[in-house]
Structures are given as C-alpha cells and as structure tokens.
Design brief:
alpha/beta, Cytidine Deaminase, domain 2, Helix Hairpins
Length: 391
Amino acid sequence: MNEFELKYGCNPNQKPSRIYMENGELPITVLNGRPGYINFLDAFNGWQLVRELKKATGLPAATSFKHVSPAGAAVGLPLTDVERKIYWVDDMGELTPLASAYARARGADRMSSFGDFISLSDVCDECTARIIKREVSDGVIAPGYTPEALAILKEKKKGAYNVIQIDPDYVPKALERKEVFGITFEQGRNELKVDDELLSNFVTKNTELPEAARIDLIISLITLKYTQSNSVCYVKGGQAIGIGAGQQSRIHCTRLAGSKADNWYLRQNPKVLNLPFLDKIGRADRDNAIDLYIGEDYMDVLADGAWENIFKTKPEVFTKEEKRAWLDTMTEVALGSDAFFPFSDNIERANRSGVKYIAQPGGSVRDDLVIEAADKHNMVMCFTGIRLFHH
C-alpha cells in the first residue's frame, strides 16, 4: 500500500486528502478504524519521540499527543502510590513498564491529554490496552500488539478506535518536504542525537548532575524536539510534568509549562487526594473539578448549588498560602528549552516550580545575567549549543 485515503484534511472542508509515498510502500498498517489527517500527524511525530526516548534511556516510552505536540511523555519507571491515585490507575494492580509509561504520559496533564493520540515504543500489551480502553482517546500507534491487546482496543469506540501498526525498521529519506501556499519547502531531517554530549558544557558554579537528573534532561530535550516551538519542558522522575508549546514568547512558554508542572504537584496534596467525590462522577469530570479546585476559579465547584453535584461534602478552600507552601516542597525538577533564554525572568519563574537542572542552547547577549540568576538559586545549567525548533 503506497497511499491511504483520508475523509478530509485538517478540517472537513479540506478535500481530497490522503497520505502517500512517492516511492515504496507506507510503513504502516491500519489494524482498526480510519485515522484522519491530524491523527497521522500526531502518530508519526509521537512515534519518533518514543523511539528516541527508548534508544536514549533503554526504557519503554509513551507519549500522549494533541494537535501535533505532546501533552505528556514518559519512560516506564514504576509509579508511586500517589501517582497511581492521581493517574486513576490505583485499582489496576501491578502495571507493566509500558503501561506505567503510558499512565504517566497520559496522567501528567490530563486536561490536555483528553482525546489524545498515543504512541508506544514497544509492542502494546494487555495491561497497557486496558488503561487505554478506559480513557478518552482517538487512537494509538505502536510497532505491534499482542492478540489480547488488539482485541481490547478493537472494542473501543464501538469498534471504530484507530489502531496503527508501524514498521520499527522504517528509515525515512534524509530530505523532507512540505508545501505551504503552493510553495515547496525542503530541508534535511533533524537527525540530531540527544545524548550526554549535549549536557557536557556546564556554565554555572554548581556542576553536580545526578543520574536521575541527567535522564530527565535528556527526556526534556527529546520531547522538545517534537514539540511545536517555542517550547519549554519540565521533567521530574522520568516524565514530562509540564510542556509549554507554540508560544511566541519564551517567558510565556516557561510560565505555561510551569503552571502545568505546578498543577501536577498540587494534585498530590492530601487536600486534593482526599476530595470527597460523588461515586457517580467519572474520571474526566473529576479531572475538570480538580483543575478548577486548585486554580483561581475554585468557587465554580465550591459555590452553594454547585458543590452538591460533585462532592459528598463541601471541601475546604485550598488557599493561596497553602498552595504556595506545598509548591515550595517541590524540588529536583529538570527543565529543557528549545532555544536560549533571552532574559533571567525565565530562571526566576522556573525556580518557583522547583527547577534545579536546566539545559538550554545559550547564545543570548544576556547569557551572563541568566547564568547569574541560575547561580543565585544554586542551579545546574548546561549550554547545549543546539537549537531544537520544530514546526
């Protein structure tokens, strides 16, 4: 098969639409459903991301994509009891490494991951398929599926769930092209290998980079490589906890990603973990309620006449002071940036979300001020010398 006809392009009015190979066959097989234009964009970008994560860490990897940027990305490290609870998998028993990777990728930013397209580095097993089945998702791409996993996935969405198998040995052409306004753009593929060499140029006084932080920085940079620019990525414990994508200003990337990282950590506070939800409230509605509860619009769920539809008893307000005190206990966070920080305000904002380790290209005329700010907070910062724009 060298082409696959699609219902339409980005929007229903954009017809005809297809994916095709000029030479050779498509490296994918659609095992179920009928993926669309954006589904394939998410699938192919996500597959590249998890393939690189697996090569770099040796661990199974998963990503949750929405609108051609990752909402989450993670490797298959075990979940803590608290993580199992905030990711809604505490009732599933022991998870396989691949299932753990997807639970973490899907769970870090559940608001953004709603209706995601999933990419898995390894053959999808039954445990991973059972997590996928219970979430709102458009589809999945993986190098293979066990018979049990495929049977579970084919039941999803009344049999219409998109399941794509990709040839793990497929190697794309060295040159890539795309058209904009009838004009063809051509460039060499970004084959940059993200490895320890990019983390060798320390520019701060503190140069102590623990193994866990090294892996987290690698994860941040690989994630950024497939995130719409400008972008910043916060990582902790082998998973992205906040991704700021597609912002025109660097500080807006840092703020957006930082607010997502903050929300990830706030969800682990006992006050949030013990919210008395009504038994009838599903996971998606719980996610929405938690997002409101920990944010500035908390009265949307705590006002009289509102809380009764969500909670068994009215929760106490999670005060601004309580939230700040909790966030002050978040530490050892890694941060990657796809381009240099032009001002030290990015460092100050990162510090408020527990960032200790930073990897960024460097090259700003204000590098000295950025380094000075990092030193003030005893951070470890590397200049990679490499920009990671993706469009």
